[in-house]
Amino acid sequence: MSVDTASSQPGDLVLPLPSAEQSTATASPLSALEPNLIEELWRAAEGANCALTCEEFGRVLTFVGEKVNYGLAAGNHPDPAQRANFLRSLHLSELALAHSCALGREAGWQRFLSVYRAPLTQAAIAITGSATVGHELADSLYAELYGLRELDGQRRSPLASYTGRGSLLGWLRTTLAQRHVDYHRRTRREAPLDNVDPPAAEAPHSPASAELGRLTDAVSRSLQALAPEDRFMLSSYFLDRQSLLEISRVLRVHEATVSRRVKRLVAELRKRLVHNLQSGGLSKRAAEEALGTDPRDIELNLRALLQTSQTPPFSDKTASSPIAASEKI
After folding, report:
1. Strands 15-16 and 149-151, how do they pair?
2. Same structural domain for residues 57 and 137?
C-alpha cells in the first residue's frame, strides 16, 4: 500500500516550471485527459485562487494519475471513466495548493501558511514532546518547503511529491515525523561513543502502526454495526459507483430519499468512528485527526464488510437502525 510521503532528500523531487517558450508539443502529457475534465477539476480545486493555471494543474493530474496507474493494478489500462473517477477522488484543492507552493507562487504560500502553520506547529510539538524543539522542527520544515532552489530551469521542493491521495495535513505530519527521525539518527551518529546509551528493546509496534490498528478496528466495528440496507447503499454508491437513480430503482424509493440517506449515513458513520476511536484510547482530537488517514493504509476488505444479502424495499423493513428509524418513507 502507498501513502503520500516526502523524500528525505529535497533535491530528489522535481516539478518542471512553465515557460513562455512552451509550444503545443509540450501539451502531449495531457493527451490522456479530456480538456473539459481538466478544467472541471481545476475549478473544483480553486486553482486560480493559488495562482495555478489550468494547464499546470493538468500536468500535475496527469503525473499523479500515471504514477499510480489511476488507482488500478499494474498492467490494467484505465478507460476515460476510470481516469475521471480516480482524479475526482483526489484532494483536489490541497493538491493544487501544494503544487502552487512547489512552483513558488506567493498566493499559494500565503494560503498555505494561513491554513497549515498553526496545526503544523502543534503537530511538531506533539511529535517532539517539547514546545521549543517542536517550533524548531516546524521552522526547519518551512525552510525546506519554502527554500526552493532552481536548477536548469526546474524548481525543487518536497511538496512536489504530494499526490493528493491522502490529506495534505496528514502528509505534512508524516513529513515532520520523518524529519524528526532523520534528526535523531544524525545526532546519534555524531555523538561520542561514550555518551551513547545502549539501545532500548525495539517496541513490537510503532505508534503509527498502533494508530492504524485502532483505526482499522474502529472502521470494522462501525461498518458491522450498520443495518444491512445501509451497508448496501454505501457499497453501491462508493464501491460500485452506482448512481442515486440506479440505487433508488433497486430499493424502490425516490432518488431524493437515497441522496438524503447517503448523506446522513456518512455523517453518522463519522460520529461512530470517532466514538469507537475514543473508546480505543484516543482523545477526541486525535480520533478526528486519524480520520484523515489514507484509506489505502487500512488493511480491511471494505467490500466484504459492506457486502449484504438481497435487501427488501425500505417500506418492508422495520426501523433496525437509528438512521432508518428517523426517516419514514
Report:
1. unpaired
2. yes
Q: Is residue 105 part of a domain?
A: yes
**How far from 143 is each of 97, 136, 146, 277, CA to CA, in Å?**
17, 11, 5, 34
What does the pLDDT look like over 69-110, one tens digit per residue? 998 888 889 999 999 999 999 999 999 999 999 888 999 999
CA distances 226 to 163, 230, 280, 305, Å, are 32, 6, 19, 10
Residues 223 and 161 in one domain: no
Low-confidence ranges of the chain (pLDDT < 70): 1-32, 147-155, 184, 186-212, 286-329
Q: Is the same domain home to 113 and 37?
A: yes
> Residue 121 belongs to what domain range?
10-19+26-168
- What are the CA-CA distances from residue 327 to residues 156, 204, 246, 257 (Å)? 53, 47, 20, 9
Query: For residue 203, is it within any domain?
Result: no
